[in-house]
Prior knowledge:
By secondary structure, the chain is α+β, with helices and mostly antiparallel strands. The chain has helices at 20-35, 40-48, 60-73; strands spanning 7-13, 51-57, 77-82, 88-94. It has one domain. Strand 3 (77-82) and strand 4 form a beta hairpin.
Amino acid sequence: MNTKALKVYVLVRRDLPWPQPAIQACHAVASLAVRNAADPQVVQWMDESPTLVLLGVENEEELIGWEKLLNERGDIFCCFSEPDFGDEKTALAVHPRSDAGLFRSIPLL
């Protein structure tokens, strides 16, 4: 058994009106969980300790920057675009196996 608890990091835009950051984070996590439901690490995360770490990025531009970086690294993640906001990207949830150190510079939401 892995003694290190798995965590899903969720990057959410801070420039969204309240309560949208929480709603958009939920959309991104749900997408990640559904799209990766057969992944053993996602199942382990959901079963053992579904810990979420909500991090705040300034705006869509910063979120897209993180999306590009994660793509380049080959990380698994789901970025959510909100239809009610003109399909702007609002949040992204990162697979629990991703390197947590990557997100140290981002403040908690």
